[in-house]
Amino acid sequence: MKQMRPLLVGIRRPRFQAMKPTTRLWMLFSMLVHVHAEMATELPAIDVKPKPADEVVQTTFKFRNKGTRPVKILDLESSCSCLSAELDKAVYQPGEEGTGKAEFKVSTFVGRHEKLITALTDDPEQKEWVITFILDIPAVVEIEPKTMQWWVGDEPVEKTTKVTMNADTPMTIKNITATRDNVEFSWKEITPGREYLVTVKPKSTKDVTLGALKIETDSTIPKYQRQLAFFSIYNKPTEATKDP
Amino acid sequence: MAILQALILLALAALAAFGTQVWHPRAPALYLKQLPLRDDEVSLAVIRDKFHDDVLWIDARSADQFALNHMPGALNLSEQQFDDQLVQHLDVLQTNTKPVVVYCSGQKCEASRKVMERLKEMGFVKNAFVFKGGWSVLEKAKSE
User: Fold this and answer.
1) What residue in A sits closest to B42 (Cα-Cα)?
2) N or C: which end of chain A has fewer CB within 10 A?
3) Rounded mean pLDDT, A71-98
4) What is the largest CA-CA distance in chain B?
5) What CATH number is associated with residue B55?
6) What was the pLDDT predicted at A75?
7) Which positions in chain B touch A78 (Cβ < 8 Å)?
8) Residue A152 in domain
């Protein structure tokens, strides 16, 4: 009972002792449960919106220890090597606000991605505090489909992929080269500076062939000057190859 | 009386469970140490027993991390440099006949699964798996 004494601070003894044993137990349990950690960011997810030319984008975010005990951050783990984060200190007192910094390497990412940073804490009730980042990267050049596929032995029919330029200013395809000799290809403009149709036809589908089309554009942003579309002629998967 | 009977039954059940745990040659663990592997995941034991350690490793970590250390013969194919790195590995993937095992940095990273799924969607691999635990497990195993 001596160990429990600190928890009883603030409770009027006579009233507490007058309670039924079950009520006393429930009250003590509630108090114990109330002592908890709750690290939380201000918003459910942190939006990161790089501009088309950005290679690296940094953001700061606020969070708070909404719990009733201090929390020590033991480690930070990222779901992607493209995202790293650091917090301004290691221990956060109850009610204390903290600031975090995150850095995202944009590279060739496009579209909307959810990436997570997991903070490992010393609190047994919140061992892991997950910080969610929503990355929204504009697709300046869209290639759909990204890969044209044939199975080995298929009829070597023509397949097409559409290249769409979404930049503020129009972009054109300057040249296309293939990494394999086994395909013939051509391209045509559908909407000047905006839409192109690339046609690919294998000379043969007898052998496995994995290759790429290197599409050169006149973009002023270096990373959009070369885009890649892929093609594959591959063995059709069988059930036997699916499980280890 | 009913409570007494229930207690006796409970005690007998507990005794039987205790006996099983102590004496049974294949008694299950009292608690789960590790989550079971998913269909598309492999562990070192699976790689050793099923694939005889003959796999093509793909390292889905960043180029910096890959440069520091990686599995022997591994190809570096990260999410953020996927296209550019994939072009460099087309020859290897085209002639590869081994199971492909993709790893990233650790338990919390998702890059290995994303890279594996992307390669499968593209039709560039057919027999590909995610290595559970990632580089942290591989590094530990290498040092043991």
Assistant:
1) A244
2) N
3) 92
4) 78
5) 3.40.250.10
6) 92
7) 105, 108-109
8) yes
Task: Note whether residue A83 is domain-resident.
Answer: yes
* Tokens, residue A162: 């559409």
Residue finishing a domain among A108, A137, A166: A137
Are A80 and A150 members of one domain?
no
Cα B8 from Cα B14, distance rounded (Å) = 10
Q: What would the two tokens of residue A124 be?
A: 């047994």
> CB-CB: which of A81, A106, A228 is closest to B62?
A81
Domain that holds residue A207: 141-241
Q: Does pLDDT of A37 surpass 70?
A: no
A193 domain-assigned: yes
The mean per-residue pLDDT over the stretch A85-102 comes to 94
Q: Do A130 and A53 belong together in one domain? A: yes
Share of chain A above pLDDT 70, in %: 82
Domain presence at residue B106: yes
Angstrom distance (rounded) from CA A123 to CA A126: 5
Best residue of B105, B108, B113 to probe chain A, by most A CBs closer than 10 Å: B108
B120 in a structural domain: yes
| Token pair listed for A6 | 């600190």
Residues of A with Cβ-Cβ distance to B48 under 8 angstroms: none
Same domain, A132 and A169: no
Query: Do residues A235 and A148 both lie within one domain?
Result: yes
Backbone φ and ψ for A6, nearest 5 degrees, come out as -60, -30
Number of domains in chain A: 2
Nearest alpha carbon to residue B138 among B89, B93, B74:
B74
- Beta carbons within 10 angstroms of residue A46's beta carbon: 22
**Cβ pair A43, A90 in contact under 8 A:** no
Average pLDDT, chain B: 89
How far apart CA B66 and CA B75 sit, in angstroms, is 9
**Residue ranges making up the domain that contains B53:** 41-143
Q: Is A210 on the interface with B (CB under 8 A)?
A: yes
Contact between chains at B90 and A147 (C-beta distance less than 8 A): no
Q: Are residues A133 and A75 in the same domain?
A: yes
- A118-A122-A124-A126 Cα dihedral, nearest 10 degrees: -30
What total number of domains does chain B contain? Answer: 1
Structure confidence at residue B26 (pLDDT): 47
Q: What is the pLDDT of residue A234?
A: 92
